[in-house]
Amino acid sequence: MASNLLEMQAITKTFPGVKALENVNLKVKEGEIHALMGENGAGKSTLMKVLSGVYEFGAYEGDILFKGETCRFRTISDSEKKGIVIIHQELALIPQLSVAENIFLGNERSKRGIIDWYKTELETRELLKTVGLDEKPSVKAGSLGVGKQQLVEIAKALSKEVKLLILDEPTAALNEEDSENLLRLLLSFKGQGITSIIISHKLNEIMKVADSITILRDGKTIETLNVHEETITEERIIQGMVGRDLTHRYPLRTPTIGDIGFEIKDWTVYHPVQSERIMVDSASLNVRKGEIVGIAGLMGAGRTELAMSLFGKSYGQKISGTILKNGTPIKVPTISAAIEAGIAYVTEDRKEYGLILMQDIKSNISLANLSSISRRYLVNDHQELVEAERYREKMAIKTPSVHQKTGNLSGGNQQKVVLSKWIFTEPELLILDEPTRGIDVGAKFEIYSIIHDAASQGKSVLMISSELPELLGMCDRIYVMNEGRITGEVAREEATQELLMKYMTRGRD
Ligand SMILES: Nc1ncnc2c1ncn2[C@@H]1O[C@H](COP(=O)(O)OP(=O)(O)OP(=O)(O)O)[C@@H](O)[C@H]1O
Ligand SMILES: [Mg+2]
After folding, report:
1. Pairing status of strand 317-325 against strand 260-270
2. How distant, in Å, are the alpha carbons of 96, 102, 107, 115, 253 from that of 120?
3. Which superkingdom does the taxonomy of this entry point to (predicted)?
4. Which atom of ligand 1 approaches the CA of 49 most closely?
5. Dist CA 310 CA 12 (whole Å)
């Protein structure tokens, strides 16, 4: 029986008005992959920040024992010296720096006070090989896709001689293939004796790799399940997380579908910088009133580019084609024109496009629809508060107050604020780009219900998702994109994962 590498005992951590952790215990055995699970806001990220010294000793109560030794970390580098390395929920590479510079940032390879670029490059090559990333050390981190950036983060972790690797939702932004690779990498680390803790909302992945699963709920430890000693089903984990059975993953709905609300004809978009590169190639589609239409596709298929270019040309150049609303062509050259025309876009990248993290929750919610709560250009604070409270309740946003800074919310709860913000504009066309990324199973159900509500009010909903079961569970009709083109259109009745996959790779050599 393996001994415990890590023991966190009776950890309590409070923020003003929030008890994020209350007497939490966590035991991680040497050499295992330990999953940490729980709903949005359960305290998973906070617990890992306590462990890695982001919250210093004294800022929490309880004890941390690593290899039997009591640890009192004052900074992140204190925990790194012991071999505890964390990769945070939000990626933290500096886009302007090269891969090599990012990997050795703050940990430079130097000779007599001067950076040894030869050694830096050599070691970077080795590390990139270990994580299976075929890129040059000199390439800028910002030019890589999220999947590859994630691998660079892992390479960076390995450069520090890691004993305990902590991954906070590493696959949330990854497609199926990249996620598989990452999980395989994790298993190979296990083979080399590296222990890891993984946080994920993707139950199927956890089932594949985890040896033990600790479940947190409302800042408390609920239980630790040992995958090798008992049979653990997804239902069993969900029950631990939400405290009840979740018999349906998707709410029931009887659609009432009307006339075509929005139609797009021959929509073509070029890359914003590389002016010869076609990103969306004469796409045509329509969405009826009351209909939920999905867009499936692999990473880079052009789905986000299509959505953003429709939303007031916020992506791309040389955009051509027609948008018709209720059969009449409309012009939407800017984001404000798009909002005016009743189009809303909920982004997959909440940090970059969706939210102002420094501001409080209520102002984020009202941001895109200030006119509805203003009179003569003055925002009515009371009305703003009333609306914000309404959405907090509707979306079950976990926070003591809507006056909280949005940046203080857990990842999943930030996503709910983005959704609130756009639903508050009462759009006629609601475009959702990966709306449930990083959202726990229970909250997903709530978000699905809200999408259903929008449709039943006669709105047109266009939904991009990389999770095929989600598209199958939610959509009346699904378009499939590949390499900028629409390669298929599938009705709900005939939709299967296999059929969608077939169209997703159609036309490739
Ligand atoms: N800096 C902070 N200030 C105030 N409250 C915070 C802060 N950080 C976290 N919280 C609160 O602590 C609770 C736990 O948050 P945490 O980020 O640990 O959740 P999580 O389990 O990681 O959720 P998710 O799955 O959504 O990422 C939440 O209620 C959150 O709003
Ligand atoms: Mg988190």
Report:
1. antiparallel
2. 17, 11, 10, 8, 57
3. Bacteria
4. 18
5. 47
Atom 19 of ligand 1, nearest CA residue: 41
Site residues for ligand 1, CB cut-off 6 Å: 15, 18, 20, 38, 40-46, 89, 398-399, 408-413, 440
The neighbour count for residue 451, using CB atoms within 10 Å, is 23
Q: In this model, does residue 303 exceed pLDDT 90? A: yes
Closest residue by Cα to residue 149 from 103, 186, 206, 83:
103
- A 10 A CB-CB count for 74 gives 12
pLDDT at 491: 96
Which range, 204-213, 238-247, 439-448, has the best average confidence (pLDDT)? 204-213
Nearest one of 403, 350, 440 to 43, comparing CA atoms: 440
In sequence order, what DSSP letters do the residues of 235-285 get, joined into one string?
HHHHHHHHSS----SS--------SEEEEEEEEEEE-SSSTT-EEEEEEEE
Q: Which domains does the chain have, with CATH numbers?
A: 4-242 (3.40.50.300), 259-342+427-509 (3.40.50.300), 353-425 (no CATH)
Secondary structure E strands in 365-504: 374-375, 378-379, 429-433, 460-464, 477-482, 485-491
How many angstroms separate the CA atoms of 270 and 260, rounded? 27
Give the C-alpha separation, 395 to 317, whole Å. 36
Which ligand approaches the C-alpha of residue 38 most closely?
1
Give the tokens for residue 141. 């981190």
Q: How far is residue 232's CA from residue 237's CA, in Å, rounded to a whole number?
A: 7
How many Cα atoms sit within 13 Å of 274 on the Cβ side?
A: 4
